[in-house]
Amino acid sequence: MKKVLSIAGSDCSGGAGVQADLKTFSAHGVFGMSVIVSVVAENTSRVIDIQDVTSDMIGKQIDAVFEDIEVDAVKIGMLSTPECMKAVAEKLLKYSPQNVVVDPVMYAKNGCPLMEPSAVDTLIETIIPLADVLTPNIPEAEKIADMQISTIANMEVAAKKIYAMGCKAVIVKGGHHIGNAIDILFDGDRVYHFETTRIDTKNTHGTGCTFSSAIASNLAKAMSIQDAVAQAKAYVTMAIEHSLAIGNGCGPTNHFYNLYKYGLSEERTGNTK
Ligand SMILES: Nc1ncnc2c1ncn2[C@@H]1O[C@H](COP(=O)(O)OP(=O)(O)OP(=O)(O)O)[C@@H](O)[C@H]1O
Ligand SMILES: Cc1ncc(COP(=O)(O)O)c(N)n1
């Protein structure tokens, strides 16, 4: 069985963060593991408080996984401070895992900040060069590329600018755009568009976590980046289409619908043992 590690924040309400990542991993038939970087007291409406785990404990959790288990892919989510980023980067440099997907989480869907604004420079210096695939949404791409994004052409320019910071591929996600949900992938060679019609729902808590974890699961199964993104896009679209009206704010994506509909065939999971 393929083994995928999430290094991210904990969302106690279960819709985003490590909880969404583990649900996504299970629905893809891969074995999920988690390193908690921050504990976030949040729900579908608001973030109440954030407590970061110490750098020492982040490092020890990563050691515990890598000294014992072969990791086929890593998904990195919320890293709230430069200290958290440095702790994670140090261990990734030590273990050099394959298939690193980074979702540079900056805000929750309800607008609450999840990353210190001053940490963008450290993100660019220490984390982005370690990413095989970086998945910023539009506001995140604007901060990283230091430009405004209001058109598809702007998304392409931002993807190329961010690619030049040292990651192997960038997908600027169009969840925050108007019109169709278009994601733009640049792999250093070509630009690819992944487009679906926009689903009219407020229940999009955890879409970015779901999407990046689906990409990491697919890369673990040895798919190309293009195929991994195409299949992750189909997965997140279905998870939004059947999203759950849980809580009073933005409800979470639905991982069970995908599982019931498609099951876990050997062909889908790539598991032969
Ligand atoms: N209403 C929608 N209809 C269809 N697809 C959507 C919708 N909202 C987001 N998506 C898709 O979901 C994926 C995640 O994109 P999004 O821009 O929402 O990420 P995000 O803002 O990082 O998510 P998060 O808020 O979890 O951090 C992308 O593939 C995007 O196109
Ligand atoms: C711990 C954690 N990580 C990531 C997100 C982003 O997800 P969203 O923007 O959909 O709320 C979140 N809310 N909480």
Structure description:
Residues 11-254 form the Pyridoxamine kinase/Phosphomethylpyrimidine kinase domain. It comes from Acetatifactor muris. There is one protein chain. The protein has 273 residues and is of the alpha/beta class. It has one domain (3-256): UDP-N-acetylmuramoyl-L-alanine:D-glutamate ligase. The chain is built from 10 helices and 9 strands. The structure holds adenosine-5'-triphosphate and (4-amino-2-methylpyrimidin-5-yl)methyl dihydrogen phosphate.
What would you say about this model in short?
With 273 residues, the chain is of the alpha/beta class. The chain has helices at 17-27, 55-66, 82-95, 120-127, 138-145, 152-163, 207-220, 225-241, 256-262, 266-269, and strands at 3-11, 31-42, 47-52, 73-76, 100-102, 133-134, 170-172, 181-186, 191-196.
Which terms summarize this structure?
binds adenosine-5'-triphosphate, alpha/beta, 39% helix, three-stranded antiparallel beta sheet, globular, single chain, 273 residues, UDP-N-acetylmuramoyl-L-alanine:D-glutamate ligase, six-stranded mixed beta sheet, binds (4-amino-2-methylpyrimidin-5-yl)methyl dihydrogen phosphate
Helix-strand layout with pairing:
Blueprint: E1 3-11, H1 17-27, E2 31-42, E3 47-52, H2 55-66, E4 73-76, H3 82-95, E5 100-102, H4 120-127, E6 133-134, H5 138-145, H6 152-163, E7 170-172, E8 181-186, E9 191-196, H7 207-220, H8 225-241, H9 256-262, H10 266-269
Parallel strand pairs: 1-2, 1-4, 4-5, 5-6
Antiparallel strand pairs: 2-3, 7-8, 8-9
Helix pairs in contact: 1-7, 2-3, 3-4, 5-6, 7-8
